[in-house]
């Protein structure tokens, strides 16, 4: 491919549409009392978390999981959506071995939540409002495993296995309206949108929302048009992009690929595409066209869902603080500047700092540790901050040692080094390494006298009132005490000596 | 007791409770009768003698030990093969489920087992309950005990014939457009389609989810009430199940049996009973109506103009829902699996080959109809319009029930027709259900009981309809009419049926 993203974006205006599926963490499945693998039940093997309902056996009937409806309403409310006064499930009919009934029970023209928005903050503080078309409930499919071919693909496989453990897991699908006007920031917006949603799912407690486990899956629609006032171009839908980084890469690739097609006078084919992690590229899946007719009709086995307004308001009143509100509150409490707060959020240090402050450190000190020494260590080790082997409580303890004057900043860094090396709590490291500040003036005076005697010229200058070279003496004393002296006290003692 | 199979379920229950007979005797008598006549009648697809006798013996032991038992404990019952029974082959009359053993019980079967009623076996039916003659069973037709060359009705011809031929005192049927009532009418028995939601659908292999309803097939109205009491009631596994508690239908039947219809407003539906109805059927209906009037009922004529579109709406809604309900039969998980005879063996091709080989013509016809009716661009014109007709029919019923307490009509336009006579003409076959279909579209309950013999010597039925949730009214009125007719006839209509040849 010769066209780059940067190049493409100078000539085309990208439009995004994002569909996010989140697996709800309810104990049981959407229509069934089988335990749900997304709700904390780990199956030992295939087809264990199944009942006649999730296997779609003849005669079995669905019953709506009330907890899943409550979760869906929570998500809708958190996204500023209207909650339907009455809504229905429909059947989406298509034949595929991973759906046991050969139809998926899903909401079609009557979603439980609609017309919302989500404000997404980018890394530089820019806020982009994403309009939400709808959030609807549906059930997940099982999983096919193709055996005997290359890379588990269906092509060349000798047979396929189906595991219905996941079949019937409750999903909420959140669909955006077209996201326009974001230009070159489209990849970042796509990523930040899904990340923000993920944070909301966790704050609401509706899902573990772990991308790597498939709890959250994104389908990314991309189209290009020559200018922002031109009609929307033909879109492609890139399926199941399962990491934040992949979301950015998939958008970048599709923008560049479609630009190249359009540059060459071609037309973009409306189709489903698959993203390949290894190459960062997409390739065509099945062609999406009118030929695909799901023959939707209202699910006759289920009565309409009519959440009472009282219930919806109860749920609204019980919503936990959402991530954006929490950030605003913490910033105000901590007195951080906008840029400082942004850096903290971008570094993923918010929870850690909050816990460190809770452990007794000042917000400034907590930020200094996590955004300074610890951020550098994490970067050097190429791990996330929260993966470092140190707890916010330990940082709080470390800062308390500094605040009490038992160690100074330099010693504190050595103590931290010990904590990170697994030598124990800050207190234990101080004791084991003998790092406490030397507060007895006797041994210190001996070192100071020796230092002054060794450098008579400098001692003379200081005596004459020129305090410029004082640092040389203090530095030498600190070096001789291996940093265990309090620099302020050293200064006082030197002054006493030269003046006395 | 000379022949236990001739007793009604109520009589059997009384004799069992009194200790005059044992459940093993009763069950064995019916198994013997099945062995004697079912070679000709073919009401059963499979018989579970061991299971039924085992339960019967357990009930007898429990009774001997002084345990408190359900009034129907020990009274055997037959179950239509569209209802799943744990550990017992269930096929819905289709090749595609040949040999399938369900791992669970339908809720109504659980309730039969809780009442400790021995299950004799599974009864024959049109494949997936699609038909009005039981000729569409993949396992061969059931024959009408009144005339073995005639159809027993359908889809539940097996259950009706089993009861009519004294092979079972009670049977379970399901009624999507008349599959309980029409067979009852043409076999001289009683059948009730309860209010939609009265009996759980959990474990009924779905034909059309919004129309299907299970109910009793019996020889008397009281027996139907007794069986309905066992299988009815709320089920949390069926979202469309009615939540409120129901009164005893057996009590309603007992109260009605006094035969007093004073002040009852009986609505005769103009649209059901005119053109297309055999004169003999109409005569029997009129005599039954006269009997009601003589007992004090007031007759009012009611008009339900939208009923003329009922059959058309039904044949859009039913196939639409069925096309989706039957999608699961694809050879991937259970039942028949057929690999394509040539070419690659892919999932899609196995599904196609399995469905091609496993479904009969009538099932394929309706799947194609339904798939078409739900297709993009046709949905509004077909499925959408049919749902509007449904609303109009509900309004017609609501208006009619303002003028009348119950509505009545002949259950079917004709008596039992000869086997094979309508197989090549689906539309003629569909017309059998013209009087029964409106009740399914509106969800109201309907009961059919014998109205008399037609001029051809075959039984005809009268259908009584009541507003939704007023099933008790059906049992009260039905039992009254039944008592009055039995007085006239000097005994049950079934006594006029010829004795079946008994296999040795």
Jot down its keywords.
heterodimer; A: 500 residues; alpha+beta; Arc Repressor Mutant, subunit A; 3 domains; 9-stranded mixed sheet; 3-stranded antiparallel sheet; 14 strands; B: 504 residues; alpha/beta; Amidase signature (AS) enzymes; 11-stranded mixed sheet; 16 helices; 11 strands; globular
Question: Overview of this structure, please?
Answer:
The complex is a heterodimer of chains A (500) and B (504). Chain A has 500 residues and is an alpha+beta fold. Chain A has 3 domains: 312 residues, no CATH class; 113 residues, no CATH class; 59 residues, Arc Repressor Mutant, subunit A, CATH 1.10.10. Chain A has 16 helices and 14 strands. Chain A has a 9-stranded mixed β-sheet. A 3-stranded antiparallel β-sheet of chain A has the order 4-3-14, with no helix packed on it. A two-stranded antiparallel ribbon of chain A has the order 7-8. The termini of chain A are far apart. The model of chain A has no long low-confidence stretch (mean pLDDT 92). Chain B folds into 2 domains: 406 residues, Amidase signature (AS) domain (Amidase signature (AS) enzymes, Alpha-Beta Complex), CATH 3.90.1300.10; 76 residues, no CATH class. Chain B is built from 16 helices and 11 strands. In chain B, helix 7 runs antiparallel to helix 16, helix 10 crosses helix 12 and helix 10 crosses helix 13. The mean pLDDT of chain B is 97. At the A-B interface, loops of A face helix 10 and helix 11 of B.
